[in-house]
Amino acid sequence: MSKGHADPTMHRLNSPFAGLPLENPSRVAPKGSITGATKYQMYLDRKKKEKELAPIPEDLRVLASNIDGLTIYVEGDICESLELELDLSLEQAVADKVINGEGRAHSPLPPLFGDGAVVLDHGASGYRWLVESADYKLRIQRPKRDGHARGSFLPRTILRVSALALWRLGGSDCIRELSRWAALVYEPGYKLVPSNVHLCVDYQGYDVSQHPNSHFVTRADTIKRENHATTDALIQLSAGRSNKTRATIYDKSKEITKSGKEWMIPIWEHSGAYRHGGTVWRLEYQFGSETLRDKGINTLDDLEGKLVDLWSYGLDWFSLRVPGEDDSNRSRWDVHPVWRGLRATLCGKVPYQVKRPKRHEQVVNKVRRHERAIIGHVLTLMHLYGETDLPRQLEKTATHFELEGRDLAKLLDIRAKRLPGLHAAAV
């Protein structure tokens, strides 16, 4: 190739039509068919048209974007020395359950994300050890040594990283920390395989709920919309399946009060664009193992290198469009300016370092969630009974238990025994 003339295929590497030949001299395309060159020209025309479309709305304020969920399967066995230590911790956890009623023991595994973990006093179906912390949850099989059985159809280890850890460290840094940690825990030859990945962006300023389902184009079979029964406000808009690809839009500012994730607010504030009291919408894509394998993401290193590509794929898989006046083919409608604005966001980087909630803050958040649940259940009962007085409703509930031959105090006592130091009399 002469100097000054670029390879005509090079600028096609990042296009969705990469790999399609511009020309195929060995085969003549049938009349009326669309060749690779024609598809590629259509792609270039669409990209050129997007540049001439309406500008991105000025009121669109992107607050944060990151990996919000990560599940990894580990193909490989833990080191034999750690296996023996995990068994010892398991015995200590069982003893702790008998003595203190908690059933926890210090984990011998190297620290991950800087947080101490505990070994629980029980396993799970197919897994001998359960290790948990505020940042992750581990299910580990016993390695097949000395005749120990192991379910061959199950992953050796399942590791789920919490949203708190991903936002506190940033998605990319979490991935690198996981790789470092795994090298200390597993025997040579292990493999870290992403099984489920959530990518999301939080934004304010544009209410997508004003658009009907017909304005969204997706490769899923259907789009589900859930509205509030009283206010008709959008609760959630979703499409797809979690084991493949799933897209969801929902009011994150309301969701954090239910999930106890108020630590998201400082992240939004740090962006400088957050307005208190305004709705924060979250657009979230969940990619299952089937989609990840199709995109060539077979290891954790693959994931780190293809985060942006995965984000772009999601925005193409489920997108908001501007209806065409003379075009009934919805896939040819122009991409909405809001979607083009969200495409520019980068996932995996967090400009604000989230602080892990302190122990007493976690307890307070848990209490608030249970209080909200109690209020919700009581109000539901009052609605079902047609009651407007709270004391009378509580009396009716107790009477209902008696009529069915159930002792409410005894039931409370049974449940209270599961919590050390709590008795039904105190309730």
Layout of helices and strands:
Blueprint lengths: L35 H16 L9 E15 L4 H21 L3 E3 L11 E3 L8 E4 L3 E5 L16 E5 L1 H7 L1 H15 L5 E14 L11 E3 L4 E5 L6 E7 L4 E7 H8 L4 H7 L10 E7 L1 H6 L5 H6 L1 H11 E5 L11 E2 L1 H7 L15 H27 L4 H14 L4 H9 L11
Antiparallel strand pairs: 1-6, 1-7, 2-3, 3-4, 4-5, 5-6, 7-12, 8-13, 9-10, 10-11, 11-12, 13-14
How many separate structural domains?
3
Distance between the termini: 83 Å
Side by side, the strands of the main sheet go: 2-3-4-5-6-1-7-12-11-10-9
Q: Write the element-wise H/E pattern from the N-terminal end onward.
A: HEHEEEEEHHEEEEEHHEHHHEEHHHH
Report on the structure:
- The protein is an alpha+beta fold and 427 residues long.
- It folds into three domains: 56-70 and 162-357, no CATH class; 77-155, no CATH class; 359-416, no CATH class.
- Helix content is 36%, strand content 20%.
- The chain has 13 helices and 14 strands.
- It has an eleven-stranded antiparallel beta sheet.
- Strand 3 (118-120) and strand 4 form a beta hairpin.
- Helix 3 crosses helix 4.
- It starts with 35 loop residues before the first helix and ends in an 11-residue tail after the last helix.
- Residues 1-29, 347-353 and 420-427 have low confidence and may be disordered.
